[in-house]
Amino acid sequence: MRNTAKITTAVLAAGALTFGLSACGSGSDSKADGGDTLTVAATPTPQGEILTYVKDHLAKKAGLKLEVKEFTDYVTPNTAVQQGEVDANYFQHQPYLTDFNKKNGTDIVAVPGATVHLEPLGVYSKGVKKLDDLKKGATVALPNDTTNEARALKLLAANGVIGLKSGVGYDATPKDVTSNPKGLKFKELEAAQLPRSLGDVDAAVINGNYALEADLSPAKDAIAAESPKDNPYGNFLAVKKGKEDDPRVQKLAKLLTSPEVKKFIEDKYQGAVVPAF
């Protein structure tokens, strides 16, 4: 997703048009249309599932009208918020949002106190049971958006497979690899394509939401996975700057970090998704 993160104005416009045709034409009564429904863009798993749980079990009692719009990419949910097509989104972590805002001139912010969950990034393989078993010259697929590629490389480095330049941050690339004893080759792919790549590569580093959609569990199937402790990649509710205090947003933030949602995440995902509150 490195290329999609560097989208041009034309692509932004196309993305907004696509969203307008697929979502806004459906009769949403969001604030932008004069209604009081809070419309939230999300990726389907687990964000869409968590929001649907809130909608079905908690929102009515809290006096919140909630509509969930699902998207399978990491760009449209932000362009939709920026252009006012939806009120909020829930799909990303802070390093990704910081990078997105910088590259696209957007002003989307995290809602304070609304970090909901962590999806541990994992390394998956159909051919080996542990990273040490990767053969020399093996190909490892990585997410190609800036922050998640860096995150994947840091995971490999934390497990001793590669070494990274000292002090490298959230924009690390394969060029920052300082040691590579196995001579691993890196294949950069859009994050959503990584589960489908497993038959063509020796291993792939896959984002938690896409792993879940492919019936892969970081807790059970990954040959290496991130630790949730002190992890900066928690997913949160985000809005366009200035909308943080919208009463509807505040209601949703409170519900997303409620004991009921924590129990839902723990029961449903069994460690594949971890509450971050």
TrEMBL record:
<protein>
    <recommendedName>
        <fullName>Lipoprotein</fullName>
    </recommendedName>
</protein>
<dbReference type="InterPro" id="IPR004872">
    <property type="entry name" value="Lipoprotein_NlpA"/>
</dbReference>
<feature type="signal peptide">
    <location>
        <begin position="1"/>
        <end position="23"/>
    </location>
</feature>
<keyword id="KW-0564">Palmitate</keyword>
<comment type="similarity">
    <text>Belongs to the nlpA lipoprotein family.</text>
</comment>
<dbReference type="Pfam" id="PF03180">
    <property type="entry name" value="Lipoprotein_9"/>
</dbReference>
<keyword id="KW-0472">Membrane</keyword>
<keyword id="KW-0449">Lipoprotein</keyword>
<keyword id="KW-0732">Signal</keyword>
